[in-house]
Design goal:
alpha/beta, elongated, six-stranded parallel sheet, UDP-galactose 4-epimerase, domain 1, Rossmann fold, 2 domains, 42% helix
């Protein structure tokens, strides 16, 4: 099968390409003969970024790719994005806008909207921050917009993407969520403490005043009998063990 991965230099794109190239041919452009487009959506912008410019840029990219899929008779379009609390208003508005565009094109192109929780790979800024705080402080203050923590190991994410794409039959539009699950943020912090400072007593102060409660719903993927190899806590433990001395 002939495959195009858009934004393939991003971490998720690189891992996806590594897996897909084992069984499929990777192409560089959308053209006749292509079977599927995987579109890794760019990161949600920081507050200092030009939000309006990036918003319109993402929507334009989605429209152009779907128009090319229709024109070249490409069967599948798979959009992959992270459910984030970084900018809740931007994320929700972008999600609704993208889904509306995809549903319009779904009569001609089979569409998959895949949103996933925070990815844990070789680098993860949030876990790095927690490790550092636990090592250096007696009283750990954690500003947070969620009282719970969802994540997914990057290998499990790629498996989930491929499972969702290959197994979701029938529907022209598919909304799929991928996460390893959910844990209380306080429990995650305590697990980190056990690994990096087991003899140290630490008081965790977590500010939940802006709890936006964005969560990934995995019901659709569960119905396809997919389960991640690692739970949230197993993912956190693996990362902390690999990075605790840095």
């Amino acid at each position: 099968m002939n495959v195009l991965v858009v934004n393939h230099k991003m971490p998720v794109g690189r891992h996806l390409c590594d897996v897909l190239r084992k069984d499929h041919d990777l192409w560089n452009t959308a053209q006749k003969g292509l079977d599927v487009v995987f579109h890794i959506v760019s990161e949600i912008p920081d507050k200092n970024d030009d939000v309006d410019f990036q918003f319109q840029g993402v929507l334009s990219e989605v429209k152009n790719l779907l128009a090319n899929c229709k024109f070249y008779n490409i069967k599948d379009y798979v959009l992959i994005t992270e459910a984030t609390t970084k900018d809740n208003n931007f994320y929700q508005a972008l999600k609704v806008s993208i889904q509306a565009i995809m549903k319009v094109y779904s009569k001609d192109v089979k569409c998959f909207y895949i949103n996933h929780s925070e990815v844990v790979d070789k680098e993860n800024k949030r876990l790095d921050h927690l490790i550092k705080e636990v090592k250096l402080s007696q009283n750990v203050y954690i500003p947070s917009r969620q009282s719970t923590y969802q994540c997914i190991h990057i290998n499990d994410l790629v498996d989930g993407i491929i499972t969702g794409w290959t197994s979701a039959c029938g529907n022209r539009y598919n909304d799929i969520g991928i996460t390893a699950g959910e844990e209380k943020l306080t429990d995650v912090c305590e697990e980190i403490r056990k690994i990096v400072s087991p003899k140290k007593e630490i008081n965790f102060h977590i500010d939940f005043r802006e709890d936006v409660n964005i969560k990934v719903d995995m019901k659709k993927l569960n119905s396809l009998f997919y389960r991640p190899n690692l739970t949230v806590m197993e993912t956190v433990k693996k990362y902390v063990m690999e990075n605790k001395n840095e």
